């Protein structure tokens, strides 16, 4: 007679095999992290995914933020239904062809709170890797919740990543938390693609002068001190916030805007690091 423990071990092994099989079809996997909430990490994630899709890459984005699954709304697919087949769960697809997976698709209402403890959250993330039929992708962006807790740790330890992008703001208190994230990633021997300093100044739409609301330069200082690449600065931008609210990333809605140009330059650097060399 097979014991419960043996059954559990068997199920874990089968899931691990399935994860390896699914992830082997995805060429490049990039995790986006932040040390603290409210730095615009999800906005950065969806715009990176949209930028890669615009360049012709087969792109997916996984929303690993169980308690704040905002990616579907930001990509205009909130309320859409997932597909199911013998090959697994079929992600929702945007008009631009970005494949999207999120806990948000399972909620009866966007006001429904996800009241899960650690094991349930880590289990859901592993299911996303094992049971979602991503198909053949060039790039998968994984939008992690802030901090170094269960969800980001599960992502970092479950699949082989090409690297991690860290999002920060110019505030020193945020820099302290990002440093913890950098050390976590380094301790796990995962490559760090670089740091993005978000909310880095506000460009006045009337006079076009830049107002340094939260200061300037702390992102570059952090990168220098930690010995990691600095990918670029993204300003506070009215169009970016409005674009997220209507479900169209700013790089698609306003491709000629200053922030879209900066996002494109950041993607150039990511391409040169992990895609052009592959």
What would you note in describing this structure?
It is a single chain. The protein has 278 residues and is an alpha/beta fold. It contains 10 helices and 12 strands. It has helices at 4-23, 41-54, 71-74, 118-131, 150-158, 172-187, 218-226, 238-246, 250-253, 258-275, and strands spanning 26-34, 59-63, 83-85, 88-90, 92-93, 99-102, 137-143, 163-168, 192-197, 202-203, 210-211, 230-233. The strands form 3 sheets. It has an 8-stranded mixed β-sheet with strand order 5-6-2-7-1-8-9-12, with helices on both faces. It is globular and about 75 Å long. The termini are far apart.
Q: How much of the sequence is in beta strands? A: 15-25%
Q: Which structural class do you get from the secondary structure elements?
A: alpha/beta
Order of helices and strands: HEHEHEEEEHEHEHEEEHEHHH
Q: Detail the poorly predicted runs.
A: none
**What's the total number of strands?**
12
Estimate the global geometry from the Cα principal axes: globular
Q: Termini, distance in Å?
A: 48 Å
How are the strands of the biggest sheet laid out side by side?
A: 5-6-2-7-1-8-9-12
Main sheet? 8 strands, mixed
Mean pLDDT over the residues: 90
| Rg calculated over all Cα atoms | 19 Å
DSSP summary: helix tally: 10
> What is the percent of helical residues?
40-55%
